[in-house]
Structures are given as C-alpha cells and as structure tokens.
Prior knowledge:
heterodimer
Amino acid sequence: xxxxxxxxxxxxxxxxxxxxxxxxxx
Amino acid sequence: xxxxxxxxxxxxxxxxxxxxxxxxxxxxxxxxxxxxxxxxxxxxxxxxxxxxxxxxxxxxxxxxxxxxxxxxxxxxxxxxxxxxxxxxxxxxxxxxxxxxxxxxxxxxxxxxxxxxxxxxxxxxxxxxxxxxxxxxxxxxxxxxxxxxxxxxxxxxxxxxxx
Lengths: 26, 162
C-alpha cells in the first residue's frame, strides 16, 4: 500500500532506527 | 512536586527504551502537566519531543506531528537552534510517513538551512537524502537528482561509505 511505501523510504527507516534509542533526558 | 516531574520523565524514557510506548505516553503526559505547573519550558519542550517520538512507534503519526510542532514552537522561543533543527527533521520524516511530501519538503528545507548555519555536515547530508526521497515521491526527478548529488558529495567528505 501507499502507507507501507512511505514507511519503507530508506531515509525514514534510518531516522526511525536512531529515534528508537533517542530520549530527552531529565 | 518538581522531583515527581523529573521522575515521570525518567520513567517515560525507560518505558520507551523497553518498547512500552503506551506507558511512555502516559508518563510523559504526566511530566508535561508538571512542567506546565512550574512554567518549566525546557522540560515542556522535552516532554513534547518524547511524546512525538512515542506516537511515531504507536503509528499515530498525526499526533506525533502535533507534539513535534509544540516542541518546535518552544525550541524557537528558547532559541535552541540545534533542537529546532532536530525537530524540523522529525517533522519532515513524520510528514513523509503521512505521505504529505510538500510539507515534508518544507520541514526538511528548514532543517537543511539550520544544519548549514551550524556547520553540521552530517545533518546537512541527512537533509539532502530526505529531500531527494521526497522529491522522488512527487516525481520531481531533476530536483531529486540535485539533492542526491549533494548527498553523495557530503557522504564522501564525511567518510560515510553506506
């Protein structure tokens, strides 16, 4: 589907990999 | 009460790193409330970013965008250019997930401009990569090629073989 296509964009995938470990620490 | 706020933030981060995104949202919402009580805008900004990130992994991209936009407003008020750039990058990617490629391009361009101002070559490379993909999705192949070439040039300079 179109939505799956957006999720498979390589630059978005790379961002999400980084985001998974990214927290704004107190 | 202030310590309670910081603890909610830490708890939210721990839930997030464990992959418990619903619990992360709940803790960060608590943190946000307490930050507002104290008028602590940096803490408010952090909570909005953390909420945006958690909503991405819940697949709730509209909510993620709303929270990132509040974080962006606060980053601008606080004159934190690096956070402003990071938030624009997040918004660009979120609008790509929402398939709103025009808005994605707007935010990736904002990110690109700040990355250049801050001399952040890695950020600039990421912006060019993202802009190339968004233009490809819109069928703007000439512009996509220009950004791909800039991305290649920056990758060579930063030694990023991947």
